[in-house]
């Protein structure tokens, strides 16, 4: 019985101990030396012997002010007791408000020390409960980059996190500016399972939410910049007012936060040791060349594939070409793309599938194919070879001549000579000069041709001058080239209707080159506002300007979201109509 009573006593003491809460809450964790902060020491029991800290580095401006509240809910009572001070820092730096102490039922309780960052004086100091400052300290938008010094075409990750302090709530946000990835191949990664997680920001406990993730492949060397993500966030923060039960009221304020620009320094791939077979592949890959059959009849076809699998810039590199003997007819390859992109980069395989048709019987050897890539982890080039492939073709072998037909090789234009006596048409007694005929020199025709050449000479010189002038016109040539490329990519987009990615890449290139040719603008300057301003100056109608901006935005957005063939056809027809309207309006 004595043991049972002792156990019950310990259990009741433990429950009483575990229910006691004694906390310290500072209104701000970052202030200027000429500002003030409020700190509240709060307990949920009627504690005794409250002892505040010494407040080293601070001057007590007001306090302590004591508040006690008690409530009854469903027959259960609860109470809150607090001591509040208003402090003014006396120096700059990282200051610590030490623990306060109180006792309850013979047990001693202490608060957690509070770290306050004190900066230099500001022109307009704010009060301890100023809401704008509370918001400033409680919410942060951060762009985390996996590698700020990658190699050319090496994948890097960008993760945008919204950090919110534990005392602050967020009710929603609007995106003001989207990040821009100039000089990067980029793909946004869909983040469907957004979950709030616990973490730290600058050493302080925070909650955070991953808003967006993207994988980037730098396409240029040197210093590149990632434009920032900017949000307008609705934030709920506590005020100094409290309800009947002592809980603080909250207010909602709007705050603009930005992740800031991020600088990426891209290293060029080493020139030393670069193999001749290197075509721009960066990552970790396997390489294979295969044929679907090794023995067949002349005139039949086989399929040969040149394939690369692994992780790296699969969509951005070239595959080596298949080389075959001239007696094998090789058709242009078909690209087979099985690549997926996640936050760690591209992964999968690409293949070039060749159709090969042997014309004659015999044994043929497809020579080895080399593939080289740069491994950024090992920082070295790696070369892989496929080895030789032997083909056995059943059928007649090629012949140089026969009783009826002599067949030449492909390199000799496949001419047919139908004669039992080859080369019989060549006569050994052929006369090179016919003495019975007069000479062309010094005839009327001779002098007429010579005079005509002298008359044509000025025209040729004038034409040559125009050509040289045109060649020297760098800006004009750039504009003409951009115009040709615009038409070319628009035609390519039409051919790729049904292929979502290739269609929108071609359409976007067509629109960009059209702007270069018509507005004399470079790709780096193609912001929505700049394009709209230039079109307005050239008398383009508001409706046309709006449709063109929507088309550019549609291309940028649609590259990373699924689209039906019908929507692609609609965008293509819209592009043709809008470009035609702009042409007409700019000529007015």
Describe this protein's structure.
It holds the Pfam family BatD. The chain crosses the membrane at residues 445-463. This is Oxygen tolerance protein BatD. It comes from Nonlabens xylanidelens. Keywords: Membrane, Signal, Transmembrane, Transmembrane helix. Helix 4 (474-495) packs antiparallel against helix 5 and helix 5 packs parallel to helix 8. Helices cover 25% and strands 40% of the residues. Strands 21, 23, 24, 25, 26, 28 and 29 form a seven-stranded mixed beta sheet that branches. A hairpin with a 2-residue loop joins strand 25 and strand 26. With 588 residues, it is of the alpha+beta class. It has helices at 2-18, 131-138, 444-472, 474-495, 500-519, 528-537, 542-558, 565-587; strands at residues 22-26, 30-32, 37-43, 48-51, 58-73, 76-89, 93-97, 101-104, 107-110, 114-119, 139-145, 156-165, 169-177, 184-189, 197-201, 204-218, 222-226, 230-242, 248-258, 262-266, 278-291, 295-297, 302-312, 328-330, 334-342, 345-358, 362-366, 370-375, 380-385, 389-394, 406-407, 416-417. It is built from eight helices and 32 strands. It is elongated, with a radius of gyration of 40 Å. The chain has four domains: 16-127, Immunoglobulin-like, CATH 2.60.40; 134-266; 285-394, Sandwich (Immunoglobulin-like), CATH 2.60.40; 476-587, Up-down Bundle (Four Helix Bundle (Hemerythrin (Met), subunit A)), CATH 1.20.120.
């Amino acid at each position: 019985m004595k043991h049972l009573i002792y156990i019950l006593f310990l259990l009741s003491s433990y429950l009483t101990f575990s229910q006691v809460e004694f906390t310290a809450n500072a209104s701000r964790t970052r202030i200027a030396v000429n500002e003030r902060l409020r700190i509240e020491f709060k307990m949920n029991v009627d504690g005794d012997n409250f002892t505040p800290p010494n407040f080293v580095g601070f001057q007590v401006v007001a306090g302590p002010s004591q508040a006690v509240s008690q409530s009854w809910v469903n027959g259960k009572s609860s109470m809150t007791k607090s001591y509040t001070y208003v402090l003014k820092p006396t120096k700059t730096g990282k200051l610590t408000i030490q623990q306060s102490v109180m006792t309850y039922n013979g047990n001693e309780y202490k608060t957690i020390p509070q770290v306050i960052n004190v900066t230099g004086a500001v022109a307009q100091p704010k009060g301890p409960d100023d809401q704008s400052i509370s918001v400033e300290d409680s919410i942060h938008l951060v762009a985390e980059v996996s590698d700020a010094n990658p190699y050319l075409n090496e994948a890097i990750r960008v993760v945008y996190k919204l950090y919110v302090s534990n005392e602050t709530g967020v009710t929603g946000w609007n995106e003001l500016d989207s990040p821009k990835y100039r000089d990067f191949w980029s793909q946004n990664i869909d983040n469907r399972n957004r979950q709030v997680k616990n973490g730290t920001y600058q050493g302080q406990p925070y909650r955070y939410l991953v808003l967006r993730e993207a994988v980037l492949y730098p396409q240029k060397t040197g210093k590149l910049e990632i434009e920032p993500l900017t949000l307008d966030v609705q934030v709920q923060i506590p005020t100094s007012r409290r309800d009947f039960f002592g809980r603080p009221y909250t207010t909602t304020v709007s705050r603009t936060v930005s992740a800031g620009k991020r600088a990426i320094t891209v290293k060029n791939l080493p020139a030393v040791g670069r193999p001749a077979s290197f075509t721009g592949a960066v990552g970790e890959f396997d390489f294979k060349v295969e044929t679907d059959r090794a023995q067949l009849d002349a005139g039949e076809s086989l399929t040969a594939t040149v394939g690369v699998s692994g992780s790296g810039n699969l969509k951005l590199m070239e595959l080596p070409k298949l080389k075959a003997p001239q007696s094998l007819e090789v058709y242009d390859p078909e690209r087979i793309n099985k690549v997926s992109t996640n936050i760690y980069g591209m992964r999968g395989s690409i293949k070039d599938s060749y159709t090969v048709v042997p014309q004659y019987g015999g044994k043929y050897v497809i020579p080895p194919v080399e593939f080289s890539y740069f491994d950024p982890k090992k920082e070295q080039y790696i070369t892989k070879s496929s080895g030789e492939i032997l083909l056995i073709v059943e059928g007649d072998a090629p012949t140089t001549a026969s009783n009826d037909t002599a067949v030449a090789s492909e390199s000799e234009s496949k001419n047919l000579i139908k004669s039992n006596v080859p080369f019989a048409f060549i006569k050994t007694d052929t006369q090179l000069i016919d003495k019975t005929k007069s000479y062309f020199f010094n005839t009327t025709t001779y002098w007429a041709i010579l005079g005509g050449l002298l008359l044509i000479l000025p025209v040729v010189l004038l034409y040559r001058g125009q050509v040289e002038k045109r060649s020297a016109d760098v800006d004009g040539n750039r504009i003409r080239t951009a115009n040709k490329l615009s038409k070319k990519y628009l035609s390519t987009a039409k051919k790729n209707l049904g292929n979502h990615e290739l269609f929108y890449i071609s359409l976007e290139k067509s629109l960009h080159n059209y702007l270069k040719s018509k507005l004399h603008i470079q790709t780096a300057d193609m912001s929505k506002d700049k394009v709209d301003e230039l079109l307005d100056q050239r008398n383009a109608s508001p409706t046309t300007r709006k449709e063109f901006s929507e088309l550019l935005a549609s291309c940028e957005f649609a590259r990373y979201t699924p689209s039906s063939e019908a929507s692609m056809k609609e965008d293509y027809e819209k592009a043709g109509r809008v470009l035609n309207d702009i042409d007409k309006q700019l000529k007015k």
